[in-house]
Structure formats: C-alpha cells, structure tokens
Automatic annotation (TrEMBL):
CDD domains in alphabetical order: cupin_pirin_C, cupin_pirin_N
InterPro entries per the UniProt record, alphabetical: Pirin, Pirin_C_dom, Pirin_N_dom, RmlC-like_jellyroll, RmlC_Cupin_sf
Pfam families hit by this protein: Pirin (PF02678), Pirin_C (PF05726)
Family: Belongs to the pirin family.
Name this polypeptide is given: Pirin family protein
Ranges of residues in domain Pirin C-terminal: 213-313
The organism's place on the tree of life at top rank: Bacteria
Residue ranges constituting the Pirin N-terminal domain according to the UniProt record: 65-139
Amino acid sequence: MSSHIKQRLALEMFWPTFDPFLFCAFHDDRFPKGNGKLGPDASLSGRHIGQDFQGKDGWRMYHGSKVPGFPAHPHRGFETVTIVNEGFVDHADSMGAAGRYGEGDTQWMTAGKGVQHSEMFPLVHDDQPNPLELFQIWLNLPAKNKMVEPHFAMLWNEQTPIVKVPDAAGHEVHIKVVAGAYTSPTGTIAEPVAPPPDSWAADNENDVAIWIIDLDEEASWTLPAASKGLTRALYFFEGDSAQVDGTEVSIREALVLDSDADITMKNTGSKSRFLLLQGRPIGEPVQQHGPFVMNTRQELQQAFYDYQRTQFGGWPWEQSDQTHGLEKRRFARHSAKGEIETP
C-alpha cells in the first residue's frame, strides 16, 4: 500500500463514510420498461414488497409497492445530497415542494429542524428499459445549524461544471464538480452552484468537495493536494482496473487518502469512474437513530417526540409515494405555491 493510501475498504450498496459525511448509498438498478403507471412492466412476485433490497433481476422496489423508491419519511439534523447520473427521481415534501430531476442533476436538501419527503423512481419509458444510477450522500450539520429551517436546492446538470483535462498523451479526464471548486492545471477554476446557506459546505474553509471523476481508457490524472487534516475518500465504482498513487486498486473499493498529498490516478482498463468525498471534520458527537442525526441522546428523543406531535408539518400530498405524471420534463417547485423552476 502506498504511503498516501491510509485504508482500503470493500464497497457494498451502502458505502463507508467519514466526518463530515454520515452515509453514502449507491443505487444502480437496471429497471425494465415501464407499465404506463411509472412502475415496472414485470411481475413483483417473489419480492419483499415494502422492503425490497435484494436486487432480484438487477433491480429493487426499495420501500415502494407500485413505483420503486422511498415513500414519505422524516429527517432532522443533516443534509441529503442526491446525485442522479441516470434515470429520474420524483421529490415531494412536507413544505409542499416538489420536483422531478435526473440525468445528471443534483438535489441538495437541508433537513434542519425537520422535514418529511418522498423519493420515488418513476419508470417514464414504456418502450425501453429505465436504468437508474444515483448516489445519496448524507452530510452532517454542526450543532449550531441542526435546527435551521428546511431548504432544498436544485443543481441542474446544465449548471454543474464538468472540466475536461487532457493528459500528456491526449487521453481525457472529466471532473464533474458538484461541490468544492476545482482548479485545472492551466489555472482555470470550475466553481459549482453554491450549496444551501446553512450547509457545512457553504464555508470554503471546510474544503468540502464532491466530485465525479471519469478517466478514459489509459488516461492519467493527478488529484491535487488539499489542506491537511481533511477526510478524503475515493470510491472506485465503475470500470475494470486502475492505479491510485502507484497501487493497483479493485472495482468496488474505497480508498482513504492523505488530504495534503497529490494523488496520481491511472486507468489501466476500460473507462474508470470514481466518486470523491472530502471535507473538514465537524468533530462533534454524533447520535443517530434512523432518519434523525443529532448530538445527544436527549436531542434524539426530542426529535422523535416532535415528529410524533407535529409530523414536521404534515403530508400535503394525496399519496405517500407521490409521483408527477408521465411527462418526462424535469422541474422543481420550492413551495406549495411557488413558481416552477426548470433547467
């Protein structure tokens, strides 16, 4: 193992993360064609409906019964960053906000003092398969921001920088910059849309970076050094083989790196894809139970009490698994009576 790779970890569906990150799920579902009602045109027999995570036939219904996904559920005390590389997500929440996003879009939601939301995966194509690939990343909030007002922002694909960097042999590397500015070797700075105002990522001193790195066949690239004392993890999620800091690494592997070192990456197989999660640790106690992340057990108990009492504003939608119709357009509405935003 190289001197700059501190740890190597195997990846399953739920990936190991490090402060300030709490959780990362990689959803990779090869859904069949749709049935005209946004669900799969396939039998659901043999699936554990309501809790289908087994990956039968290469896809899952998750907590959905007709449409795959996650019907209404609460959160408090952290943020969700949902990056959809392929496919679509239908969002609805207790603030009356709604949206359909995908095909490269990111939704960044600050749960703060409490919100309910649903995340359904509509199968919009009835004449072809509906592949879905997304990351859901949980980013912690510091104690001073645990109880801020809920907020959600759309980082549309069209607004998200993708930097193309040729290596010495002319092979291309693409860096999609979801959070944390990237400075190219020529000095060009790629700055993404700002994260929500109460996010740990909103302060540049915290060096939060969320990048998707694609290396073409035989491409090489150097991940530039950042500040000392950050957590920095590189997740190899697609490809055949690669080298990181001179070490052969395997697909579905996480590498924990020194944050203040340049790290050379080389693709030694077909196109290789990596996710980078980096940030300054918050360094506070974490107490988590299911959808709530607080600092103390007492705060966790209060979160459950508050949810039972208020339902975090209730659920204003007809269905707990709310979807937004057969039309394939992407949109967002940030409140019950807000204007429609489109890419």
